[in-house]
Amino acid sequence: MAPKNAVQSPIEQAALAKRCSHEGVKAGAKAAVLASVATAIPTFASVRLLPWAKANLNHTAQALIISTVAGAAYFIVADKTVLATARRNSFKQN
Question: Longest C-alpha distance within the chain, in Å?
């Protein structure tokens, strides 16, 4: 283990950054899957049950609603995870 004030080599910094981003990708993918399911169920149910939704939401609109929520969930969770991991690693080094 390096002393508290030691400077990391570029290889160690790259490995740490890769681990942080990998954790963010995993957390973001889990959130996207969960958000997709949580959005798909009410979207499909509303298209079947509500006359307005049946008339106005075609397959493309349904896919757009679900994919937008999944994409937003992915990027929000991945960003928060990467920042939290970087913050945690920063406190470990100090």
Answer: 67
The SS3 of residue 48 is helix
Output the pLDDT for position 42: 96
What Å distances lie between residue 4 and 8, 15, 34, 81, 90, CA to CA? Answer: 10, 18, 40, 24, 11
**Tokens for 56?**
């106005």
Residues whose CB falls within 8 Å of the CB of residue 67, separated by 6 or more in sequence, listed in order:
36
Dihedral of the alpha carbons of 47, 50, 55, 57, in degrees to the nearest 10: -40
The predicted structure's pLDDT at residue 3: 54
Sign of CA dihedral 25, 21, 15, 4: negative
Q: 27 by DSSP, 3-state: which? A: helix
**Distance between CA atoms of residues 31 and 70, nearest Å:** 8
